[in-house]
Amino acid sequence: MQCPKCFGDMDTVNQDGENELRIDRCQECHGLYFDQLTQSDLVLVEGKTALDSGDDDVGAEYDDMVYVDCPKCDRIMDQRKIEEPVAIRFEHCPTCYATFLDAGEFRQYLSEAYRVEFQALLPE
Ligand SMILES: [Zn+2]
Ligand SMILES: [Zn+2]
Asked: Which of 11, 38, 26 is nearest to 93 (CA)?
């Protein structure tokens, strides 16, 4: 699978399986692609923030890149975002429910200040 932002190759870093959720990470920008991440699935990945090994500054650059195509469906991904009380912005595929987070965002959005707001932006 190719990264929707920088078109680098993505490696599967968390496999499908019972009580698991597939996560792919880009070799270049280290963005993370989550397969069908829903509000109730968030608990499955909240202990996995070490997978978000990329550089925050690189992630911040790619955060400005919007309207990318889902690598699985080839359809344009929606943006889910809020400004208040915290700023959150990420890509979500309305067709397959995949979520793409730029490097550093997974760590940030699962921190105490962001978690509730991030979860509310995910599909139910
Ligand atoms: Zn990438
Ligand atoms: Zn998709």
From this structure: 38
**18 C-alpha to ligand 2 centroid (Å):** 22
Q: How many domains does the chain fold into?
A: 1
Q: In angstroms, how far is CA 80 from the centroid of its own chain? A: 11
Tell me the pLDDT tens digit for each residue of 52-63. 999 999 999 999
Q: Tell me the pairing of strands 99-101 and 32-34.
A: antiparallel
14 within 8 A of 20, measured Cβ to Cβ: yes
With bands split at pLDDT 50, 70 and 90, how would you rate the model's confidence at 18? confident
Confidence of residue 66 (pLDDT cuts 50, 70, 90): confident
Domain that holds residue 81: 10-121
- Ligand 1 center from residue 91 Cα (angstroms): 13
Assigned domain for 5 exists:
no
In angstroms, what is the span from residue 72 Cα to ligand 2's centroid? Answer: 5
